[in-house]
Amino acid sequence: MKLIEWDENLSVKIDSIDEQHKVLVDMINDFYEKIRTKAANELISELIKKMKNYTVVHFTTEERYFKQYNYPDFEAHKKEHQDFVDKVVDLEKRFNSGKVILSFEITNFLKEWLINHIQGTDMKYTNFLIQKGVK
Ligand SMILES: [Fe+2]
Fold first, then answer.
1. CA-CA 20 to 30 A from 12: which of 49, 60, 99, 114?
2. Rounded to two decimals, what is the model's pTM?
3. How far is the centre of ligand 1, averaged over its atoms, from the C-alpha of 59 (Å)?
């Protein structure tokens, strides 16, 4: 069973960004599955690293658009991205040093963050970026 099912409610109406969001959804689902099935620590650690790296790639894509078109909410949006990256980096550190046992609480945090961020923060740029011709 998937933790998150991507559907139109998560669409920001910009294909290039939706595609990246789908990758993040897949990664969180994979993370959930690995915890559910008690996968080996190395596999989980690898996935956290992949997730961290892809998150940075994705945020960079959005922020590039913001800069390019002078998006008014740039700073606040960027701060949300940075806070999330910090959380994932911290999670990675604590997991790799054996200080945290992964739980559904963590998968739920990732899920809630992504859904709230897409629906609450990302969707604010939809009209702005579409008007600028971003696809
Ligand atoms: Fe964002």
1. 49
2. 0.94
3. 6
